[in-house]
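Handout, page 2. Input:
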Amino acid sequence: MNTGSEVRDKLIESLGDRTYRHLFASASSRRAIAEQIREMRLSRGWTQADLAKASGKVQETISELENPNYGSYTYKTLQRLAEAFDVALIVKFAPFSELVRWMTELSPEDLAVPDFDRDPGLSPRAFTETTEPPASMTTILREDTAQWNTRRPPQDQMPKLRLLPPCAPEEPAAIQVDDTNQRRSA
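Output:
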């Protein structure tokens, strides 16, 4: 039987081939999204029909989305699912080391993300405890702030931003920028 580190080592070796690496990343993303949708649904005791109703989809679509071979996810659909589950949707680029860690250490419990009301990181205790962010995050924040402070224009030259009233759900949020004393939509 392979240990976790043996599986990890074999995976890292396989990722040395560029074609394999990108095919693996694509397949892993499809599989992870499908599995996460299914695990979040099951952790809430929902049927596919329940999720379909909550997300404005039909049951057949939910079945497709839970199929790791589907792969035609749109951002809009994923955002609707996030809203139905009452969770955040985070899409990001990552190094392959993160993908390896994610694929070798992820459990079904990790996939079943709690909704806002059950998020342990948002409990009142989480706000009162004083915990320092990891050293690496502190360093990144300090470096970003230092870079911003050296590049930022004087306050009187900064464009003025104003968030417009909420739009219909189908429309993106709009921001007005006034950097020439004329208003225009961004």
